[in-house]
Every structure is written in structure tokens, then in C-alpha cells.
């Protein structure tokens, strides 16, 4: 059985060694680098299944590395490691195309859980919507993370595709914030709610050319995704 490849970019030598050692023990193949420049090189050479990037790194920080990695691949999940106090880092990272973040200090069990959720959903999620879906002037392929419309075909991140799949399944209905968070992120949490708002903004950009498609914010309750039948 092939091991899933994890790219871990972390410049704290002790944390990097302990994290890589534990992930190797869990059966993952870890590619370890200590700066953003090496992270990009390793991504191109190794084609990892998932990337874990520390925000604060020398030469190129995690944000710059993520932007370059995301330009090369929309599909690979990217998780950020952020300091607990740097809440704005999480929002900026998600805006750049990251899928999730984990705050330091963290437990290996928590990190492994996040990794497994992304890899399981990416490769074997039985609940994933299948087949190409027509949404207004767009066609959405949830299995291959693409959306095609007047601007041509665009890649999506895994999290974007999961959220759009949820909205499509609940089209023209009011979806509560807590229900979306549990279904897509796995739990209802204030900071995950902030993350969700960033992803909703990212989805809205995909549909800018079709005013019949809307993701309406129902203040204090959730979202309503409306599209023509």
C-alpha cells in the first residue's frame, strides 16, 4: 500500500523533528523542509498529497509558499500552522487558498485527525457528490474540483468544492451556520465560522458573471444559496 506523502515546512527544528517522526510512525511519508523556498521545490519534485506550512519561515513565509503552490495545484489540501495569538493570520491564509489551519501548540492526534479528514474526503469520501452539475451558466465537477463558466474552466480547492456541494444539495433553502460547519468542517466553532465566511466570499467570485446565482447572508442565522432550476 502506497503511503500518503505529506510536505511539512517548519523552521523550528525541534517541532519539525517531533512532528515528522510522529507522522512517519503513523504511516505517512513525510518530506521535511525548513523554509518556503525549499517547500516550493519539494512540492514540484515530490507531488505530495497534502501540505502543512508554518506561517513564519525564512526566505519565503508560509503565505508566499502557499500562493505559489496553489498556483501550481488547486486540488492539494494546504494546512497552515499558526501561532495561537495570530488570528488574522488564519483569515489571510484562507484568503490565499489554504483549506484549514491548526494553531500551535497542537497535539499530534489533532494534526493526524485533520490530515485524515482531508485525505479521506479527497480519495474515498462516499458522500461526495458525483457527476457534473449544472448551476446557472456554470458546470461544476465536484469530483475533479473544477467549475466552468463564461470565464472558462477554473480549478477549485477541496474545501471550496465541498462547500459548494453542500450548498447545491440545500439549494434555495436556508442553511444554518452551525449545520454547514458540522457538515463541512466537522465541528461548530467561532473561528471556523470566520473561515467559512472567507470560503463563501471565494465561492461568490466564481459566480460573478451570473447574477441569477446568489449566496445570501442571512444575518445571525446562516446562508441561502439560490440558483435557477
Question: Would you mind describing this structure in some detail?
Answer:
There is one protein chain. This protein is an alpha/beta fold. The chain folds into 2 domains: 5-124, 3-Layer(aba) Sandwich (Rossmann fold), CATH 3.40.50; 133-226, Winged helix-like DNA-binding domain superfamily/Winged helix DNA-binding domain (Arc Repressor Mutant, subunit A). 43% of the residues lie in helices and 24% in strands. It has helices at 13-25, 36-46, 62-72, 87-95, 108-124, 158-169, 177-185, 190-206; strands spanning 5-9, 29-33, 50-54, 78-83, 100-104, 133-135, 138-141, 146-149, 152-155, 174-176, 214-218, 222-226. The strands form 3 sheets. A 5-stranded parallel sheet has the order 2-1-3-4-5, with helices on both faces. The protein has a 4-stranded antiparallel sheet with strand order 6-7-8-9, with no helix packed on it. A 3-stranded antiparallel sheet has the order 10-12-11. Strand 7 (138-141) and strand 8 form a beta hairpin. The longest helix is centred in the middle third of the chain and has 17 residues, at 108-124. The radius of gyration is 18 Å and the shape is globular.
Amino acid at each position: 500500500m502506497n503511503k500518503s506523502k505529506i510536505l511539512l515546512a517548519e523552521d523550528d527544528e525541534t517541532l519539525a523533528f517531533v512532528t515528522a517522526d510522529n507522522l512517519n510512525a503513523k504511516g505517512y511519508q513525510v518530506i521535511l523542509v525548513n523554509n518556503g523556498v525549499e517547500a516550493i521545490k519539494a512540492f514540484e519534485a515530490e507531488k505530495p498529497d497534502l501540505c502543512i506550512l508554518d506561517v513564519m519561515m525564512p526566505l519565503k513565509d508560509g503565505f508566499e509558499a502557499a500562493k505559489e503552490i496553489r498556483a501550481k495545484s488547486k486540488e492539494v489540501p494546504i494546512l497552515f500552522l499558526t501561532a495561537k495569538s495570530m488570528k488574522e493570520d488564519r483569515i489571510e491564509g484562507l484568503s490565499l487558498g489554504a483549506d484549514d489551519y491548526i494553531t500551535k501548540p497542537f497535539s499530534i492526534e489533532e494534526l493526524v485527525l485533520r490530515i485524515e479528514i482531508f485525505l479521506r474526503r479527497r480519495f474515498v469520501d462516499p458522500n461526495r457528490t458525483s457527476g457534473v452539475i449544472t448551476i446557472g451558466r456554470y458546470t461544476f465537477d465536484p469530483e475533479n474540483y473544477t467549475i466552468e463558466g463564461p470565464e472558462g474552466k477554473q480549478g477549485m480547492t477541496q474545501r471550496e468544492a465541498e462547500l459548494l456541494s453542500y450548498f447545491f444539495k440545500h439549494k434555495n433553502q436556508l442553511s444554518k451556520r452551525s449545520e454547514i460547519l458540522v457538515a463541512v468542517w466537522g465541528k461548530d466553532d467561532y473561528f471556523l465560522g470566520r473561515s467559512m465566511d472567507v470560503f463563501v466570499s471565494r465561492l461568490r467570485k466564481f459566480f460573478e458573471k451570473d447574477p441569477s446565482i446568489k449566496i445570501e447572508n442571512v444575518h445571525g442565522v446562516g446562508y441561502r444559496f439560490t440558483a435557477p432550476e
